[in-house]
Amino acid sequence: MRLEDLPENWDLIIIGGGITGAGILSLASRMGLRVLLLERNDFAWGTSSRSSKLIHGGFRYLREGKMSLTWASVKERERLLKEAPGLVEPLGFLLPVYRDRGLGRWPLETGFTLYDLIARKRDHRFYDPEAFSMRSPHVNRDMLVGGFKFSDAQVDDARLVLRLIKEAHLSGSRVQALNYVTVNQITRDASGNVSGIDATDTETSVQRALSCRVVINATGSWVEALHPSPDPGFHIRPLRGSHLLFPLWKLPTILALSFFHPSDGRPIAAIPWEGGLLVGTTDIDYKEDLLVEPAITSKEVSYLLEGLKHEFPALDISAKDCLSSFSGIRPILSQRGKAPSKESREHVIWVSRGLVTVTGGKLTTFRRVALHALKAAGPFLPSGTPEPWKGPLFSPVPHAAGENCNLSPHAWRRLCGRYGDAANELVSKAAPEDLKTIPGTKTLWAELPFAGRYEQVHHLSDLMLRRVRIGLLSPSGATGHLDRIQELCAPVMSWDSARWKMEREAYHEHWKSKYAPLPIPSDLTRKTGSLR
Ligand SMILES: Cc1cc2nc3c(=O)[nH]c(=O)nc-3n(C[C@H](O)[C@H](O)[C@H](O)COP(=O)(O)OP(=O)(O)OC[C@H]3O[C@@H](n4cnc5c(N)ncnc54)[C@H](O)[C@@H]3O)c2cc1C
279 CA to middle of ligand 1, Å? Predict the structure, then answer.
């Protein structure tokens, strides 16, 4: 369905197809509402495909005394681990402790104990230097006094958004979600109450005015374009965070490694993810136009490499080992001139006569953020609307393992987590050779035509960077696989060969400018330091 085919009247229109909008759509779809979500780019195009992919309590928030955020995050983590197996999975972390830098053993011990108490499980342990080095053989042993193992969880952020949207959509004809539609403005009646929105299809330029009772503005870092902050001293402070991706063999590990950067003491993590190694993040003010897609800078590349080299000196990791990079913008609400990493990660909600704006927050706490946003929207919804849904977010995954297709239990679980009930169809439609993984990744070839057929793919970058993540995980953005991908997807997508050619060229250019690892100018490799 496209913009021109939509019904005119809705109860609720959600602007923004990141995790916040998708979470709200998911809960609202269980409340019997006529609800529409509109996304200007692709679903999860914004920060929600560019995170560190952690569903985490946020140990650092505990250090900062933000007990309630840690509490909520740990509770949500435990809930998601239970409700979304295969999509949200446990992840063990190692954290070395040094005599001359970073946090000492006892402050960390106190933090981890609190962390465990909230989750109601004992999940951390301290190892002496020998035992710790056996678990992380490449770690810098100079001044090492030992290290901790603790647990959090990880996710494929874009697939989390997509699963929420898809399952909400499947729940009934009263729910719609369209990508590539920009909301230009929110319209109000003569008394100043919200009456609807004006939107444009960004591909065809078709325009529509739609009516609704309430609008939720869930546009992340972009919220103030549609609803300026009601408090003049309190505005979005866009902070860029960037990551590098390496092949996992460069630092073979099944546990994530967390350490403090030698130049400024900020926490950095090296995380095994989807067959690659994700290293990040930075945290710096984003001074560019917010409409420009962010990309890593040479200075950030140098900073991350400096951290890696210091922590894993024997591995000789360099920029030439890097597969890709990506950058996202944190939607942070800021009142004072704090250091970026000290700014609050709590969400905020502003309400103005039928317009609810919600921003800030974390991927981890999206359900809680959605609940709060829908509560704020409650007074504008039809009388008799039930309370926001508090039950399980995802439909149960199918039990029938892919027995007939020789998938490992792990691969089947992963598919169920990403595609829910549709995993059965994905597998049953696939040729046996397409149920193999793409080298260096956990992605099956069969996921590509499935996504191309059913998941509102408009451009090749939607497919390569968000439906599956091989554009990040395979060398050169997986352009070496494009012949096979075209062969697999062409029969189920409506693109002719001229369109494929154009999409392939556009994708390659886009990848080179926004996702390629940057070469480091020689002056920067010598002089690095804090990013603040
Ligand atoms: C580097 C980094 C690492 C992070 N790591 C983690 C982590 O590990 N764990 C965690 O819990 N959190 C993490 N976060 C935070 C988390 O990713 C964000 O808080 C979250 O993704 C924000 O989601 P959102 O939906 O509010 O915004 P977004 O994902 O940015 O979505 C907003 C959407 O609105 C759309 N939009 C804007 N204007 C319009 C318009 N006019 N019409 C229609 N659509 C519009 C945009 O295109 C965008 O897709 C991280 C953030 C960063 C930057």
Answer: 19
pLDDT in tens, 164-206: 999 999 887 799 999 999 999 999 999 999 999 999 999 999 9
Q: Check whether 371 has a pLDDT greater than 50.
A: yes
**136 neighbors 147 (Cβ within 8 angstroms):** yes
Q: Give the contacts of 104 (CB within 8 A, at least 6 positions apart).
A: 97
Instruction: For residue 183, give the ligand 1 atom closest to its CA.
Output: 42
Superfamily of domain 403-514 in the CATH hierarchy = Alpha-glycerophosphate oxidase, cap domain (1.10.8.870)
**Pocket, ligand 1, Cβ cutoff 6 A:** 15-21, 38-41, 45-48, 50-54, 56, 182-183, 218-222, 241, 281, 328-331, 359, 361-364
Nearest CA to ligand 1 atom 48: 46
**Which pLDDT tens digit goes with each residue over 100-117?**
888 899 989 988 998 888
Residue extents of the structural domains in the chain:
3-48+158-234+344-380, 52-154+236-333, 403-514
Give the fold, CATH level 3, of 3-48+158-234+344-380: FAD/NAD(P)-binding domain (3.50.50)
52-154+236-333 has CATH 3.30.9.10 classification? yes
| 441-451: pLDDT as tens digits | 999 999 999 99
Ligand 1 atom 2: residue of nearest CA: 51
Query: What's the 338 CA to ligand 1 centre distance in angstroms?
Result: 21
Q: Are 238 and 330 in contact (CB under 8 A)?
A: yes
CA of 142 to the centre of ligand 1 (A): 39
Beta strands in 335-452 (DSSP E): 348-352, 355-359
For the stretch 390-416, pLDDT in tens is 899 998 876 665 555 789 999 999 999
Neighbours of 191 (CB within 10 A): 7
The arithmetic mean of pLDDT across residues 497-511, rounded, is 98
| Ligand 1 atom index nearest CA of 21 | 25
- Residue 75: CB atoms within 10 A of its CB come to 18
Ligand 1 atom 27 nearest Cα: 220
Residue closest to 281 by CA, chosen among 20, 531, 18: 531
Confidence of residue 337 (pLDDT cuts 50, 70, 90): low
